[in-house]
C-alpha cells in the first residue's frame, strides 16, 4: 500500500469533521430497513454523514417508505434488475447483496466509509467513536465487537478478538475511502467464501493497518421477514 504515505491519503486523518458514508444494501425489508437500520444511521451523534441505501430491485414498499424520510443526508436508489446470484440457498446467502453494495460504494463521497445490513442496528455513538479512533490510530480499517441474536431470541457477544473470519462482519468495520475501489466479488461463492470476508481477506492481503475498537457498537439480528426472496 504505497498510497498510504501520500499526502492525499494521510490528509483524511487530519480533517476536523470529515464526511462519513454509511452504505446499506437492501431487498424487500422495507419496514425493518426504515425502523432499524436507517433510523439508527440517522440518529448518529456524529451528524456529518451520507446514508446511501441501494435496493436490489426491491418489489415491496421500500421505495415508498424511503420517500417518507425527510433528511437530505439520505439517498435511495432501487436498481432495475436484481443481481444474478446462485440458486442454491447457502451459496446465494454468501453473495446476495453484492450488486447493490458495489453500487453504493460507487456513490460514496465520504472520507471514511462503513456499512450496515438492512435489518441490523448501530449504536448511536458508533460513527463518532470510530471516526475519532481511526484518526487517532491512523489505521486503514477499524473493527469492533458486536452482539448477535440467537434462535431463542437471546444475545451473544462476538468479541472480535482478531481481524479474521467469523470475528468481523459487514456492519462491524469502518475504513479509509481508499478501499472503496475494492468491491464485493459476486463470484466469491465459488471459493465457498461469504462476500464480506472475501473482500476483507483481500484488504488484509494488501497489508492494511487494522485496529480493534473495544466497544460493542452493533446489534446483529437474526435474518427474518424478508419478502419474496
Automatic annotation (TrEMBL):
One of its GO terms (molecular function) is glycosyltransferase activity. It comes from the Bacteria. Keywords: Glycosyltransferase, Transferase. The keyword Glycoprotein does not apply. SUPFAM superfamilies: Nucleotide-diphospho-sugar transferases. It is an enzyme of class 2 (transferase). The keyword Metal-binding does not apply. It holds the Pfam family Glycos_transf_2. CDD domains: Glyco_tranf_GTA_type. Its EC number is 2.4.-.-. InterPro entries: Glyco_trans_2-like (IPR001173), Glycosyltransf_2 (IPR050834), Nucleotide-diphossugar_trans (IPR029044). Residues 21-82, 101-157 form the Glycosyltransferase 2-like domain. PANTHER family: GLYCOSYLTRANSFERASE, GLYCOSYLTRANSFERASE 2-LIKE DOMAIN-CONTAINING PROTEIN. This is Glycosyltransferase family 2 protein. It comes from Sphingosinicella rhizophila.
Amino acid at each position: 500500500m504505497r498510497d498510504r504515505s501520500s499526502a492525499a491519503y494521510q490528509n483524511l486523518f487530519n480533517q476536523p469533521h470529515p464526511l462519513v458514508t454509511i452504505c446499506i444494501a437492501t431487498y424487500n425489508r422495507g419496514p425493518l430497513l426504515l425502523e432499524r437500520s436507517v433510523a439508527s444511521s440517522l440518529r448518529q451523534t456524529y451528524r456529518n454523514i451520507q446514508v446511501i441505501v441501494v435496493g436490489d430491485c426491491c418489489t415491496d414498499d421500500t421505495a415508498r417508505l424511503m420517500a417518507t424520510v425527510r433528511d437530505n443526508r439520505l439517498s435511495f436508489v432501487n436498481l432495475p434488475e436484481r443481481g444474478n446470484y446462485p440458486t442454491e440457498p447457502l451459496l446465494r446467502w454468501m453473495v446476495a447483496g453484492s450488486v447493490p453494495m458495489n453500487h453504493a460504494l460507487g456513490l460514496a463521497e465520504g472520507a471514511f466509509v462503513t456499512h450496515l445490513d438492512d435489518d441490523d442496528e448501530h449504536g448511536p455513538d458508533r460513527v463518532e467513536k470510530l471516526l475519532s479512533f481511526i484518526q487517532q490510530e491512523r489505521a486503514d480499517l477499524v473493527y469492533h465487537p458486536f452482539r448477535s441474536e440467537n434462535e431463542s431470541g437471546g444475545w451473544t457477544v462476538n468479541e472480535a478478538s482478531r481481524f479474521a473470519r467469523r470475528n468481523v462482519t459487514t456492519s462491524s468495520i469502518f475504513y479509509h475511502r481508499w478501499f472503496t475501489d475494492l468491491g464485493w466479488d459476486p463470484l466469491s461463492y465459488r471459493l465457498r467464501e461469504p462476500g464480506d470476508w472475501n473482500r476483507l481477506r483481500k484488504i488484509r492481503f494488501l497489508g492494511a493497518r487494522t485496529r480493534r475498537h473495544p466497544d460493542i457498537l452493533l446489534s446483529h439480528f437474526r435474518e427474518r421477514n424478508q419478502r419474496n426472496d
